[in-house]
Amino acid sequence: MKKVFIDGSSGTTGLRIRERLAAREDIELMLLPEEQRKDTAARKEALNSADIAFLCLPDDAAREAVTLVENPDTVVIDTSTAHRTSPEWVYGFAEITGRETIKTAKRIANPGCHASGFVALIAPLIAAGALKKEARLSCFSLTGYSGGGKKMIADYENPQRSPLLGGPRQYALSQQHKHLKEMTLVSGLDLSPAFLPVVGDFYSGMEVSVPVFQSDLTVSTKEIAEVYRARYAKGLVFFNENADEEGFLSAVSLQGRDDMEISVYGNEERILLVSRFDNLGKGASGAAIQNMNLVLGAPENTGLCVKGERL
User: Fold this and answer.
1) Do 60 and 169 have their domain in common?
2) What is d(CA 188, CA 198) in angstroms, rounded to the nearest whole number?
3) What is the CATH number of the domain that holds 87?
4) Model confidence over 146-157: pLDDT tens digits?
5) Residues 6+ positions from 131 with CB-CB distance below 8 Å
6) Burial of 99 by CB count in 10 Å (0-12 exposed, 13-18 middle, 19+ buried)?
């Protein structure tokens, strides 16, 4: 039985991973007493005793945790931003990076939530030559407030909260969001997109939209759908040709799930690419557990909440 340790299990991603793993009988979940949760010696021992270690920490703490790992057999899955564009780490998006690459990796960088939705839409089109690498794209991403961590959750759930939290709030106004580097690099784009993240008054769920003009494409709208069908024939990402709800698209449609839905709208001049998922699911903990399953040789959807049996 493989030993699994979560370093930082009190945060939203860590708690979700722990929740998903609690019922597993194929692993031993290693837990530190509350008084040792920040004890470096105790953490180091746990990290080096684990077959797989999840890092659910801020960036600097994640970098520090990696230096504590001396066991060459310990597989580290980092959910922070710290290593997502590092050439020494494997980008942990199975449907994009490739399952075989993840299966043998010792250092896996879990994708960011906004970045997951963007990369899932753009990387297959760039790889297929359907979208020009020099395209000037924009990305509108609507997320639930749990993506902001404990402080934002507390702010939104405070009975005396600001009335401004009752409406959608755009942020990262300086166009310097931490996900931009991985969005550009992993997708294969020459230029970073103009990125418009928006947090809404709902706990979890995510809807990422990328508008594309025909002048930046080399294929038709119908052929875009075929690219997605081929790329996402299996895995936790699936193409849905008729995903709208009577002309609307809700950001909470996949709330509580660990998979991702891809769809295409618009016409032959202006095309709208959309991905929907849970920011704590395929946007964080779901992808992390999927990566762990691949390393263990288990079915990708083991212990996850997904639509149907597609694997």
Assistant:
1) no
2) 24
3) 3.40.50.720
4) 999 889 999 999
5) 122, 125, 212, 216, 217, 218
6) middle
Q: Which of 52, 65, 64, 59 is nearest to 290 (CA)?
A: 52
Instruction: Work out the pLDDT band at 310, boundaries 50, 70, 90.
Output: very low
Q: Which residues pair with 149 in a beta bridge?
A: none
Task: Supply the CATH number for residue 213's domain.
Answer: 3.30.360.10
Same domain membership, residue 152 and residue 102? no
How many domains, in total, are found in the chain? 2
Mark whether 207 and 118 lie in a shared domain: yes
Count of CB atoms situated within 10 Å of the CB of 264: 20
Q: Which domain holds residue 175?
A: 113-281
**pTM exceeds cut of 0.85:** yes
Q: Where are the beta strands (DSSP E) in the chain?
A: 2-7, 27-30, 52-55, 75-78, 90-91, 107-109, 138-144, 169-170, 194-200, 206-213, 237-239, 260-266, 270-277
97 in the same domain as 35: yes
Bridging pattern class, strands 75-78 and 107-109: parallel
| Domain co-membership, 82 together with 120 | no
Question: What is the distance between the alpha carbons of residues 116 and 236, in angstroms, rounded to a whole number?
Answer: 12
Distances (CA, A) of 100 to 103, 167, 175, 296: 5, 43, 34, 12
| 3 state SS of 88 | coil
Average pLDDT over residues 107-125: 97
Q: Residue 163: what are its φ and ψ, rounded to 5°?
A: -65, -20
Catalytic residues: 113
Query: Token digits for 102?
Result: 């993840």
pLDDT in tens, 155-187: 999 999 999 999 999 999 999 999 999 999 999
Mean pLDDT computed over 104-115: 97
If one counts every other C-beta atom within 10 angstroms of the C-beta of residue 167, the result is 9
